[in-house]
Structures are given as structure tokens and as C-alpha cells.
Amino acid sequence: MYAVLLLPNFRLQAALRFREEWQARPVAITDEASAKARVLEVNELAAREGVAPGQASPQAMARCAALQLVAQSAAQEAATQAVLLEMGGTLSPEIESTGPGYVTANLHGARTREWMKMGTGVVDALASLRLTARVGIGANPDLAFLAARQARPVLVVQTPTAFLANLAIHELEPPPDLLAVLREWGLHNLGQLTALPRGELMDRLGPEAARLWERAAGRTERPLRLVRPSEAFAESCEFEHEVETIEPLLFLLRRFLEHLTTRLGHVYRVAGQMTLTLKLANDGEYARTFTVPSPTAQVEVLFRIVHTHLESLRLEHCAVAMSLRLEATLPERQQFQLFESPLRDPNRFGETLGRLAALVGAENVGVAQVLDTHQPDRFRLEKPRFHELGRTAPLGEDLAVGLPLRRYRPALSATVQTVRGRPTFLFSEAANGPVRAALGPYRASGAWWDNEVWAVEEWDVELENGGLYRLACVAQAWRVEGCYGEVEEAETIPQGRIVMMPGIRKAGEE
Amino acid sequence: MSALALESSRVQEQTAAGADRKAQFEKQAVLGGLRQLLAEKYPQAEQRPGGVFRTGWPALDAREGGLRRAAVTELSGGSGEGALFLHEMLRAVCREQCFAALVDAARTFDPTTCAMPALARLLVVFCADAGQAVKSADLLLRDGNLSLVLLDLQAAPLKQLGRIPASTWHRLQRLVEQTTSALVVLTPQPMVESARVRLAMRGRWTLSAQRRWRNELVAEMGVQVIPRQREGLRVVEEEEELSA
Question: For residue B243, is it within any domain?
């Protein structure tokens, strides 16, 4: 058995999927490539007003002033055809993309014989994606196609002879001249045609008539041109007008996600990555890829990830089109360990990271990764991957020495008096006063082999007032790198006040 | 049915309803008594609905069991003591195999002196000022994924801290109550009105500390734990208890 999935008014359905507001208005799809923008398809409201396919746009507008003309969209038609193929792929691995809005599936390997239930399930699934479908099931592809055209919405042909007998000949779309001859002979349905002997018909009307007779008898067999359903889960929409605000984008995004996640659900997949592309009015493009920390098919979770980004997005030009593509992946299976505390909701955490990045800047949020160098204060913040982090080895005994440093970023410039190279008096924005004790120098240098050569001399000092600081001397310039402990009543120098530095002390007084 | 019979059935219903109410009162009284008994016997358990986060700091764990989850803890003291506390909390995070966040209002955290396994479990947020730090902590508490959120305001200018409205601390308390996270706010002086516990740390360090093991310095540091209780809308401090 074969099944044909048919989307009547394919171009119209593809164009109106995300435009609910036009459903209640007369709409015509036009071919912008033709000279007068000929009408390709019309909806029922437009047909009632006398608008018909083949008319030029001005003619159509003359018939119906309220007619909404919509340009044919190749991208949206391709996306809709991909949806149809995916749906066919859920019935059988042998599918054919027979034509626009028309997919044939070979059901010979199907386990079920409840064809009506299967067809109804497909129609319902496509309805959840806002597509009106018809399903025909028959013994061969052509019979299934004819059944799909007659289906309301599902038709299973159990007895082909009886089904075909009452069908009009033009349903088989014969060549016009052949159809005219058959009508002159008084033949109107397939039953009348197949009552004639096949050989004599071919003698009089040629091989085309013989092929038509074979199809009318339901005896044609043809191999399917097999295709694989595309694994690209993408939706796109071109706006009628330039979009300046976030709300229309969010509305459409939610629709996209509802459709895409439903499609993912049909193939038992979840979204691992999302790519949002905005076409801009200046012919530019803005694209952003979002990695979903814990792959999911939940609309709310995916929507929040994109929403958080769009909230802080500022573009110089308006958007004229938008597309969203999801990368399908297998659902993650995670077994929580008894003594581990993994993230409860990695996606929510990813969203929080996005919000934090928007607040303080992406370069200021992350997990510190200390660089492989002896140069002081060299580290970078990387994107945390807590949900991927397993159980880490417990820390051994604390072998750290001394007090941890609180760094001043940037380091504060300082004036330091020295005696035989040792600091004796500090004057800086952070603290000032005589140095009671000093540990150092701790010298380090590196990268002498390239242009980023560095060398530093560090001192830990204790001031008379009890404050503990780290000083550094780089290229003869002193600075305060940080503090180990400040005193509450530290003497601070008001701005503009002149302080006399003490003279150089005698040797041995440091 | 006669009026007498109706009256009789009404009286019977009232009697049954009264017996039910009496049984409920008795049940409530027994439950109340049990709760009181438990509260008297295990006062610490009664005060900590969210549990505790064990710090490994003997002075703190012995008194409180650790940092209270679903509550705000304020640590006030010098910046040196605060830095020492942060490093100890990093070790605790690694020991507990959980995740933490450090919101640094003055960008003073130095990761180069920390152990790598601990850093891998710490989300660092460097902020431009105290206001931004409070907003970041707000976002992290709403997230609820992290066991410990450290809000370090110790190195922030007092002028900035003075601009934080008191209602902010109550908002953070409301947020943390809905999670199992522990929020620790490090401040130069007591200022968090909604804090359930206040820690005051005092250490008099000299330069010789730079030649000693850090765990010795931790053991020597004085920790004053001041649990606070709610009385209506007010938060009052319990009798101070000094532990070191």
C-alpha cells in the first residue's frame, strides 16, 4: 500500500502559516516573477468575489478591492515541503517528494493495517502545525494520489475498481486534445474508459491513450524516487513591513518554536542549538547561535533563551525577515549521583548567565581559568559548564601560605621611597605612611623571547598603621597591587592636600 | 415527620458536629505539644527550615552547623578577613561538590591564589559598582541553581553602599527564602537589616602571617556569631556569643 500526503492550495497554506490575521480576509498568492504578477492561488473568500488563478493582479484587485495580494515565497514553500516530508518519514523510510505539497510514502513495511487511523493521525499532526492536509491510501502511488484528491480528509481505497469507476476522466489530467476526443466519444468517467478494449484504444489514439487506460484501471506501478527527509528544522518569514520593535519578533518566534518543537517531537529529537537570523533593511544580516545547555524541546525554555538575548539587542536597521533554525539532537539522559549536587535546571542557569552578561558584560562573567604563566593576575573568565562537570577530586590539605590578596584593578600608582632597594615609605591613593616591615623582593619575568616581555619586582609591606599591602615595581614605576588587610582608621590624604615626604632615613632604620 | 422528630435530629447533628470539633481541638493540642517538645529539644533544627551549608570552619559549624540555607548571612569585618573567608568557602564548595557564585562589587578577587578544582565550581561575576552587584545577586537567587551565593561588598566605597536602599536586603531575603541557597553578604560594617545571622571576624595580622600556613591563620581568626530572630517585622539580635 502507498500513502499520499497532499496539501491542497499548497502555496497559499505555506504563505499563511504564520499570518493568522489574514485567514479571515480574501487572499491571493501572486507570482512576482511574471510580468503582471499573475494570481497563482486564491482562498475561498477571494474565490467568492470572483478572483481566480491566472488573473493579473490589477484584474484581481478590480474584482475585489479588499483583496490581500501576497507574493509567493520560495523559502516558506521549501519549509512547508520539508514539514510534509518529515511527516511522510514518520510513516515509512521510503518516501518521495512527488511535487509541491505532495509526498508519497511506501507503506509495505508498515506494522499496522489500520490505515484510516494512520491517515487520521497524520492529518491531526499536520493540523497541529497549522496545515490542512488530505491523505489517500491505495494499492499503488497513482491510486493513492487520486484517493488523496478525493479524500475529506482521509480516504482508503479498498476496492480500486469501484473507486475509479465513478471518477471523472479529467482527474487523471490527460492531454487536452486527448480529453477533447474522449468527450466527443461520450466518455466522461474512468469506468466508461476502462470498458473499452485497451489495444484498440491504443491503435486509434496512440500510446498516450494506453497509458491513460492503465491508470484508469489502477494498474500502473512505478518505483518511487526516494528522498531523505531534511534534518534542518527551520522556519522563516518575510515581513510585509519593516519591523522596529521586539514584540512582533517575539510573537513570531513563539510560533516558530511551537512548530519546530512539534516537528522535533515527531522524530523523537530535542533542540541542542538554535540559530536566529534577521535580515535587515540595509541588506545586511544579523545571526546569532544559541547553545541550549541541556537539550530540550520545551517551547518556554527555548523561547526564554532567545527572548533574553533580544531584550538587550540593539540594531541600527529594521528587520525585514526572520528565520530560526534548530539543530536536532538526542535527548540527554542524566543519572544524578547520590552525593553530587548538579544544576537543577541547566537551561535556566544558561538564561541567568545571559542576563548577567547583559548586565555586567560578557567578559565579566564566568569561571576563572588561570593562565599558564608566572605573570601576576593573568587569568580569563570562561563560560561555565557546571552541568557537564562531574565529581571532582577532593582538595587535599590546604598548602597555601599567607593571607589571600585583594587586588586593586587597575593597580594604584604609588610613590615609594626606598633605602638600598627596600621600601621605606609609601604614598598612594590607597594608603600612605612609613613602612614598618617588608618582605621581598619577589622578582619574576617572562616572554623575553617576544614583544610582550615583562618583568616585575614585588614586595609585601606592613605600614606603621598596621595595613598590609603588596607593592610592585614595573619599569621603575611603583604601584600598589592590592591589600592583605586594611586598617579601619587608615590615614587617607584628602585630594589637594600637600604632604611632605620624610627624608631618607639612616641606614639600618628600615 | 413531626416537629419533635425534626428537632431531635437537629440536636443529634449539632452534638456530632461538636464532638468532631472537640476531637480536632484535642488533635491540634497534641500536635502543638509535640511541636513545642521538638522545638525545646532541637532548637537549632527548628530555626533552620532550609538546612545548613557546612563550611568546614570549626568556629562556625560548631555554633550554627554551617551557613543557613534559605537565609541571608552577613559577614562584616576587614577586607583581609573577608578574603580569607572566601577562600575557605571555596574549599567548602569543592568538598560539598556543589556550585557557588561570587559577586564581586570591586573586582578584587584574585583567582591566581586559589586551587583549580575549586575555581571550576565557582561562577565569578565582576561588577562595576555595588548597585550592579546587588542586581547580579538578585538574578542568581532567582535562578536558584547554586548552593552558595557570595556577595562581596567589602571593598566597595562606603558612598556606594550607602545608596543601597534597606528594602533591597528584605527583597533578597524574600528571594533566598524560596530557594535552598545560602546567601552571604560580605560588608565592611553591619548594614544588612534582614540578615538572619551576623558573623563578625577579627584578625590582627602582621607581616609574619605571610610566612605561615593559611589554615593556621584561619584557626586563629576570631569569629563572632550573632544569630538574629524575627519579632514581628523587626529583626533583633540574640545574646551575643563569642566563639573563636
Answer: no
Joined grid coordinates for residue A508: 639600618
Closest approach of B72 to chain A, Cα-based (Å): 21
Per-residue pLDDT of chain B (244 residues; tens, 9 = 90+): 455 565 666 666 666 666 776 776 677 677 767 766 776 676 555 455 568 888 888 778 877 788 888 899 999 888 888 888 998 899 888 888 889 999 999 999 999 888 777 888 999 999 999 999 999 999 999 988 899 999 999 989 989 998 999 899 999 999 998 888 999 999 988 889 888 888 888 777 888 888 888 888 888 887 788 766 554 444 455 544 444 3
Residue A348 domain boundaries: 249-332+344-388
Assess whether A177 and A265 both reside in one domain. no
CA distance A496 to B156: 23
A468–B205 C-beta distance less than 8 A: yes
Q: Are residues A369 and A279 both part of a single domain? A: yes
What are the residues facing A427 on neighbouring strands?
A415, A432
- How far is Cα A396 from Cα B87, in angstroms, rounded to an integer? 14
In terms of Cα–Cα distance, which of B200, B132, B198, B195 is closest to B163?
A: B132
State the DSSP code for B205: -
Enumerate the residues of chain B whose CB falls inside 8 A of the CB of residue A492. none
CATH code, domain with A179: 1.10.150
The answer on A263 and A382 residing in a single domain is: yes
How far is B186 from chain A, CA to nearest CA, in Å?
A: 13
| pTM of the shown model | 0.66
Same domain, A263 and A144: no
